[in-house]
């Protein structure tokens, strides 16, 4: 039984004690746990069968003459070489025991089997139980017989209680414990968040100020001047609790002080990144990471998609969702049609790219290829064609890395564009020349023609940054003279478009810089974001 480990393996130490005496040594630890009762000596191993029976008969006759009789235990000593586990044996039949709360607790030496109708030990520990030989009220939990060589004290009781609690606590796998800790931490962070509505509730309306920023007003009536290379940090925007997946300035010139940022912390935010650097509104419409968020061409709505397969078009002035759709894959790329603003194209973890109609609220076209994920989408020729970059990077992937599609017919125009074994996480169109740039995992920017047959330039290649599997974005300045790209080591690199030489390197982030964009009006303002979750405004 479980009581076998309750005895010391040394015979001389157990037999040197006189009968009924209390040893001065500390209590012997036990893997099983028993309810320790005061009022009776613990060195009962020295009692023989006659003395034990007489003691029990005397106790029963004086206190409970009408109650049931408990069969006496049989004690005997063994030889010095015998196993100490055979010194105490109990009858095979289960004794019927009654309890009462009036008598003081006594030492319990029985119960090597589980009694019928027992309750768990955790339930018995909820309230203090005082066993005695009176009336039987609630059933006692199972426990093992225990022998102590020392007197029962506070230290033994606390140790016994702790071990009893540890004995019945169920095992929780490490993965479940980490999930519970993550849920608790997420709940605390949501409770302490200062701005933004809770998930599932409509966001509050954003006040669209009619006045134009005093920094932007002087540049509205004049053509865009030459882009100035940024040197210093103007604002350091903090507020996201996860990596920032992308940023975009408002496409309306009079409202271009607002910056949109999407994050993996299930939110996207709107910032005043020119005047104050403050967060204007936080939107928590998604239950998973927000991978893509885009301004509508009118500047009044935001289209967002994430890993929860949900698509939302939010009106900033009213806070209402003018469109909500459910995709059958995780969304990683979103682009509005440059001419028909009621259409947009989305791609993600699927071999399909889908075109949605906001007015009808459904998919109107499908573009299917033998791929697994769409990384980015870029419209060409005023919306009649578009490019999609994929995750295909095998030896026969020349027809799948970058694909040109006809928007109306859903047919492939060209599938022989990029012939090297690297994926292209982002694409960017030049504002003045019919060329586009592709960010490759070969740690360089490749230049392509934007008209069929989309040939790659062998003479110009922009190198010096690192991609290393991150979705590092790139962009051209509004005048087309500079290129900006992030880097996996946190740097921001600016290149001269004509010569492919490096113009400046900004050491801005501690982790990977995944996004960089020029301001559409201010010629010396640049915004960057990183995998660390911060955003920096440079001037």
Any descriptors?
single chain, mainly beta, 30 strands, 30% strand
Largest sheet: 4 strands, antiparallel
The amount of helix comes to 10-25%
* Cα separation of the termini: 79 Å
Structure annotation, total helices: 6
% residues in beta strands: 25-35%
List segments where confidence is low: pLDDT < 50 over at least 5 consecutive residues: 1-68, 73-154, 191-199
Coarse structural class? mainly beta
- Total beta strands: 30
Task: Label the overall shape.
Answer: globular
Radius of gyration (Å) = 38 Å
Spatial order of strands in the largest sheet: 3-30-29-28
* Integer average pLDDT: 75
Describe this structure in words.
The protein has 539 residues and is mainly beta. Helix content is 12%, strand content 30%. It contains 6 helices and 30 strands. Strand 16 (374-380) and strand 17 (385-390) form a beta hairpin. It is globular, with a radius of gyration of 38 Å. The chain starts with 10 loop residues before the first helix and ends with a strand.
Give a topology summary.
Elements: H1 11-15, H2 49-63, E1 74-75, E2 88-89, H3 121-124, H4 154-168, H5 174-192, H6 217-220, E3 233-237, E4 244-249, E5 258-263, E6 268-272, E7 278-283, E8 290-295, E9 301-306, E10 310-315, E11 321-326, E12 331-336, E13 343-348, E14 352-357, E15 362-368, E16 374-380, E17 385-390, E18 402-406, E19 412-414, E20 426-429, E21 435-440, E22 444-449, E23 456-463, E24 474-476, E25 482-486, E26 491-496, E27 502-507, E28 513-518, E29 526-530, E30 535-538
Antiparallel strand pairs: 1-2, 3-30, 4-5, 5-6, 6-7, 8-9, 9-10, 10-11, 12-13, 13-14, 14-15, 16-17, 17-18, 18-19, 20-21, 21-22, 22-23, 24-25, 25-26, 26-27, 28-29, 29-30
């Amino acid at each position: 039984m479980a009581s076998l480990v309750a005895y010391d393996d040394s015979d001389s130490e157990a037999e040197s004690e006189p009968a009924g005496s209390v040893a001065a040594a500390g209590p012997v630890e036990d893997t099983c746990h028993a309810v320790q009762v005061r009022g009776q000596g613990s060195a009962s191993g020295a009692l023989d069968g006659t003395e034990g029976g007489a003691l029990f008969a005397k106790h029963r006759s004086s206190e409970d003459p009408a109650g049931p009789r408990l069969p006496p235990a049989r004690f005997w000593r063994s030889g010095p070489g015998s196993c100490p586990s055979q010194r105490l044996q109990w009858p095979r039949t289960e004794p019927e025991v009654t309890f009462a709360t009036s008598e003081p607790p006594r030492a319990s030496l029985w119960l090597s089997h589980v009694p019928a109708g027992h309750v768990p030990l955790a339930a018995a520990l909820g309230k203090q139980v005082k066993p005695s030989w009176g009336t039987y009220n609630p059933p006692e939990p199972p426990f093992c017989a225990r022998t102590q060589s020392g007197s029962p004290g506070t230290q033994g009781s606390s140790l016994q209680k702790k071990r009893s609690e540890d004995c019945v606590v169920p095992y929780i796998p490490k993965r479940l414990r980490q999930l519970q800790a993550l849920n608790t931490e997420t709940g605390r962070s949501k409770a302490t968040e200062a701005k933004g509505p809770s998930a599932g509730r409509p966001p509050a309306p954003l006040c669209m100020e009619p006045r134009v920023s005093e920094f932007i007003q002087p540049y509205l009536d004049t053509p865009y001047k030459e882009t100035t290379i940024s040197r210093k940090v103007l604002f350091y925007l903090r507020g996201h609790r996860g990596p920032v997946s992308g940023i975009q300035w408002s496409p309306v010139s009079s409202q271009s002080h607002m910056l949109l940022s999407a994050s993996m912390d299930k939110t996207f935010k709107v910032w005043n990144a020119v005047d104050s650097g403050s967060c204007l509104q936080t939107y928590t419409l998604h239950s998973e990471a927000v991978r893509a968020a885009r301004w509508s061409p009118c500047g009044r709505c935001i289209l967002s998609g994430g890993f929860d397969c949900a698509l939302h078009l939010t009106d900033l002035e009213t806070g209402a969702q003018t469109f909500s759709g459910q995709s059958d894959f995780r969304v990683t790329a979103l682009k509005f049609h440059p001419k028909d603003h009621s259409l947009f194209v989305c791609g993600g973890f699927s071999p399909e790219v889908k075109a949605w109609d906001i007015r009808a609220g459904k998919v109107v076209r499908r573009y299917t290829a033998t791929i697994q994920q769409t990384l980015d989408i870029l419209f060409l020729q005023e919306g009649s064609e578009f490019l999609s970059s994929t995750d295909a990077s095998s030896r026969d992937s020349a027809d799948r890395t970058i694909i040109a599609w006809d928007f109306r017919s859903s047919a492939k125009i060209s599938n022989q564009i990029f012939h090297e074994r690297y994926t292209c996480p982002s694409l960017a169109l030049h504002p003045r020349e019919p060329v586009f740039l592709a960010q490759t995992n070969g740690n360089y920017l490749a230049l392509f023609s934007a008209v069929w047959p989309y040939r790659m330039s062998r003479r110009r290649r922009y190198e010096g940054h690192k991609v290393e599997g991150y979705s590092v974005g790139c962009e051209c300045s509004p005048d087309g003279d500079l290129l900006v790209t992030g880097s996996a080591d946190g740097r921001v690199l600016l290149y001269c478009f004509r010569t492919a030489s490096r113009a400046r390197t900004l050491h801005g982030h501690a982790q990977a810089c995944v996004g960089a964009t020029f301001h559409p009006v201010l010629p010396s303002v640049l915004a960057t974001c990183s995998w660390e979750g911060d955003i920096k405004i440079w001037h």
